[in-house]
Every structure is written in structure tokens, then in C-alpha cells.
Amino acid sequence: MNILVTGAAGFIGYHLCELLIKNGHTVIGLDNINDYYDVGLKYARIQQLGIPRAKAEVDGQISSSTLHGEQMKFIKLDLADRQGLDRLFQENTFDVVCNLGAQAGVRYSLENPDAYIQSNVVGFANLLECCRHGNVKHLVYASSSSVYGLNEKIPFSTEDTVDRPISIYAATKKSNELMAHTYSHLYQLPTTGLRFFTVYGPWGRPDMALFLFVDAIKKGKPINVFNYGNMARDFTYVDDIVGGMSKIIETPVAESKRKDELYKIYNIGNNKQVKLTDFIDAIESSLDTPAKRNLMPIQPGDVESTWADVNDLIRDYDYKPDTPIEKGVKEFVDWYNDFYE
Predict the structure, then answer these.
(1) What angle do CA 328, 16, 327 make, to 5 degrees?
(2) Homologous superfamily of 2-197+236-270+308-322
(3) 62-100, pLDDT tens digit by residue?
(4) Where is the NAD-dependent epimerase/dehydratase domain (predicted)?
(5) Which residues contact 54 (CB under 8 A, 6 or more apart)?
(6) Rounded to whole angstroms, how far apart are CA atoms 159 and 209?
């Protein structure tokens, strides 16, 4: 298939592009390479996909390479640029669009909400219109476990009501689900939203807990442990995330067990809670170094625990993430050591 992956220079987007290329697809990766975190890391991911940084830095120009015997292309473009996006869809035909392009980060959304509206709402609306007019067969997009907000019933189920978000980031992700539902209903565009649960692994973002903890411990600095360590997350290894995504992308909706359901939401998580303290223990074990723990109150916009019910994903696609936390943390530490040292 010919597949557009937005957010291709991002953590999950990079891994998905690499897997889809290995599976024999032609991929066009799109990213605006914003400076929310180190752009050097973003360009390094693109270079892993065979696109030199000098070419990737040029706005609106498609660069190509051969990776694993298949074609990888990249274009630097902002989803909020409607004219640029229209040109891309006029000049290319996409079987599937996978939207991972979004302004990430719960805490940053408290400080700069406009960035989230432009990228996550305006950008997503532009993409929906392009998919509608471009005869795209399937739109797969990233939602987030953050949409569960103040929900107290766990594990979180896609049957739960999610109308109490506690961050702008979460609100924009819920808006994506509502917009996708409308396009599925009005224009018969098959859409699949994936609520990710605390994704971690090699090439991870510098603002995420695993990166921050490993970086601080290796530098002999204390780590900030929020809510005094009384937190739990359904940590999900990045290979499990993109493995599930590729299965959904490669299975036509009409041939899946969901069949005639054009609009669908799935949780994609490890279906297991890990205490934050146990997560830190796994990091200490991989580094063979104890952490200096700075216990702090919970931050605004944060929730105490997450846990994914993935029964729908198992039923419809026979897929369930299962990488143990110890293995996933070690993979990240090995990458960090190789990349930064």
C-alpha cells in the first residue's frame, strides 16, 4: 500500500514508518519538525529512515530513499498548512493515512494551549478533509489514554464515558474522536482511533518519564517522583504499539471482525498496571545505579493511575501487547547509552 504517516519524525511515527517499510509498503512521512524538544533527535530518526538531514530540512519538498528494499519518502510540512496539505494529496494517492502528528505533552498544554489547538484540532480537521476528498480507504489516528481524565473505574474501557478531560491535550484528543465519528457517519470514511497508554522505548521523547529518569540518574542528579510515588501506569512498549497499528492498517475494515463499523476506538496498552516505584526499580536495575528520589505532590493535569482494557483489540484483531517492563526498560537504556555516549 501507499501510506501517509504524519508525525514521522516523532517517537512512535519513526518506529511505525520503519515497520511499514519492512512490511513492504511505500511510506510518505510528514512532520513539521517543531522545536518542542531537541530537533536533532527528530532529524536523527529521519536519518535512520534513510533521509539525509539536509534534504529533510527543506520545507514542502519530498525527499526519497530506499530502506529495506522499499521506498521511503519524507516531506517537511505542517498539518495546519491547508494549502500545502491539499497539494500533497493532489499529487499523491494514499490507501491509508495514519495520523501521529500532534503537539504532544500534557504539562506543556497547560502553558501553551494554542499550539495544541492549531496542531491537534485545526491540523486534524485539515487531514480529515483531505482524506474525504482524496478517497482514502482508512484513517488511523492517535488518541490518548488522557481522554479518560477523572474517570475512577479501572481498567479503562472504550465503553466508558469520557467527558471529563483535565488537560487541553486530552480535550483536543477527545475532539479528534468526535470529528472522526462525524466524518465516518457523513462521508463513510473508515476511521480508527487508538488510545495509547504511556508509550516508552528506544528513541523516546526527552520530556517523558523514562528518558528524564535515565538521564538524571546517569548524571547523578535527583529524579522528581510525583504524587510521592503513589502512581501507576499501563506502560506500553513502542514495538507493541506499532505492531498493533500495522495490523490495523494492513487489515481492511471490511475483512476485520468489526466489519461494517466504519468508526471505532481501541485502547492499546499492556493491559497491566505497573507502580511508578516498580518502574523506577526496573530503571535502577538496568543502570545498576540507585536513584536519588525527590518526592513531590501530583502535578496539575496528571492522573494517579491508568490501565487499559484491550478486549476489543483482542476480539477484532487478535492482538495484545505483552512486552515485560524489565525488557522494555533495558532496550531503552541500551539505546540511550549508544546514542548519547
Answers:
(1) 10
(2) NAD(P)-binding Rossmann-like Domain (3.40.50.720)
(3) 999 998 888 999 999 999 999 999 999 999 999 999 999
(4) 3-269
(5) none
(6) 29
